[in-house]
């Protein structure tokens, strides 16, 4: 019994709360969207490196990107300032750019590519089953 308490004590000491820095500019939004990649509107997502803006879901819509057959979904609102009239990012090939200050982001990783940009694109969950894609938060 004594050994169990000691093990439990060290287990609790070893467990530390991983603090994730929350983006102060983007709020949590709940949505659940389904798309069918077999439809002509989504044809570009059937090819590696294909991307598109989807206005349904998220704060300012979604940036969808095909990374080696896996669909990535990012928040379209620029993560480095409060949503505004210029903060919807635009897709340029394999990057997204914010019209407010021209910050660039990778659609493959969400990471900022411009010096001075602190936060990465906000990632949303994606489930794929054949041509059916579910994007949600």
What does this protein look like?
By secondary structure, the chain is mainly beta. The protein has 1 helix and 9 strands. The protein has one helix spanning 2-14, and strands at 32-36, 51-54, 62-67, 70-75, 90-92, 95-97, 104-106, 123-129, 132-136. A hairpin with a 7-residue loop joins strand 2 and strand 3 (62-67). It is globular, with a radius of gyration of 19 Å.
In a nutshell, what does this entry contain?
This protein is mainly β and 137 residues long. Helices cover 9% and strands 31% of the residues. Mean pLDDT is 88; it is low at 4-16.
Count of domains: 1
| Helix amount | under 10%
User: What best-fitting shape do the alpha-carbon axes yield?
Assistant: globular
For the record, the CATH architecture stands as 3-layer Sandwich
Q: From the 3D structure, determine the CATH topology.
A: Rieske Iron-sulfur Protein
Whole-angstrom Rg? 19 Å
Tell me the name of the CATH class.
Answer: Mainly Beta
Number of strands: 9
Unreliable stretches (pLDDT < 50, length at least 5) are 4-16
Strand proportion: 25-35%
Largest sheet: 6 strands, antiparallel
Oligomer: single chain
What is the fourth-level CATH superfamily? Rieske [2Fe-2S] iron-sulphur domain
**What is the overall pLDDT average?**
88
**How many separate helices?**
1
Structural class: mainly beta
Q: Biggest sheet, strands in spatial order? A: 1-9-8-4-3-2
């Amino acid at each position: 019994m004594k050994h169990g308490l000691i093990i439990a004590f060290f287990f609790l000491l070893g467990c530390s709360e991983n603090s994730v820095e929350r983006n102060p500019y983007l709020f949590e939004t709940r949505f659940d969207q389904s798309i069918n990649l077999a439809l002509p509107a989504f044809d570009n997502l059937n090819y590696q490196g294909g991307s598109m803006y989807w206005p349904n879901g998220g704060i300012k819509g979604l940036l969808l990107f095909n990374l080696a057959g896996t669909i990535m979904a990012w928040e379209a609102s620029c993560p480095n300032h409060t949503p505004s009239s210029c903060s919807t990012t635009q897709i340029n090939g394999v990057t997204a750019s914010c019209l407010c200050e021209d910050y660039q982001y990778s659609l493959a990783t969400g990471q900022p590519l411009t010096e001075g940009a602190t936060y990465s694109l906000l990632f949303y969950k994606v489930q794929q089953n054949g041509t059916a894609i579910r994007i949600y938060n």
